[in-house]
Specification:
This protein has about 210 residues and is α/β, with parallel strands linked by helices. About 35% of the residues lie in helices and about 15% in strands. The longest helix has 17 residues.
Length: about 210
């Protein structure tokens, strides 16, 4: 698959980049994508939720009323879940939501997500660029020139670039990530994938089996 390389002014440079069919041209595996996204979201959960149960609520353990003859249901202590202000029955407890997923499944998921983007023609290749100083206006102008300012976009950089990151963090719908840290969730959670020319080789190197 060949794509034209654009500059930050939105014009074609005359060069083309060939995307590997082993990554961008595979048959997408949607189940692998589901598992990887599920694990990613599960890992974001803190799992610190907690509610007090009947043994943890402050209150007397004295029997509230006599067992029989009241005409209502029998009741024990005031901390019972059936009484207002009592403990919660089967409430949430701290837990770890993370689970294991094989590396090959995660790799297949990321390749499948990239293949989906390639099929939908939502990949734009831009020549490498750098910003001398962080300027949000400059990053906004680049998005405007590439005609993606109205779309959620993800810029894939070959390496960390503080200026580009700082320039993009105040722009709604614009995210930045390095090629080696690209995840399935990030790929799917964007409309247009903007890959810098130097990132193509890194993606192919990281994602190969």
């Amino acid at each position: 698959m060949e794509l034209s390389v654009f500059n930050i002014e939105g014009k074609e440079t005359g060069r083309k980049v060939t995307l590997s069919d082993d990554i961008f041209g595979i048959e997408p595996n949607d189940h692998a994508i589901y598992l990887d996204v599920k694990q990613y979201l599960a890992n974001q959960r803190q799992g610190t939720h907690k509610s007090k149960e009947r043994g943890e609520v402050a209150g007397s353990t004295k029997k509230i009323k006599r067992q029989k003859g009241t005409g209502t249901a029998r009741a024990g202590m005031i901390t019972s879940p059936t009484i207002v202000g009592g403990g919660r029955a089967f409430g949430p407890r701290p837990r770890n939501y993370s689970f294991k997923l094989n590396k090959k499944v995660k790799l297949l998921a990321r390749k499948s997500a990239l293949a989906h983007k390639a099929l939908d023609q939502d990949i734009v290749v831009v020549e490498n660029f750098n910003l001398d100083t962080p300027k949000t206006k400059m990053m906004a102008a680049i998005s405007e020139n590439l005609k993606i300012s109205d779309k959620k976009s993800l810029f894939v950089l070959p390496e960390e670039n503080k200026s580009i990151y700082l320039s993009s963090r105040n722009l709604q719908g614009v995210s930045v990530v390095t090629a080696s840290e690209l995840t399935t969730y990030q790929i799917l959670n964007t409309k247009t994938l903007v890959i810098l020319e130097g990132s193509v080789e890194i993606i192919e190197d990281v994602f190969k089996l």
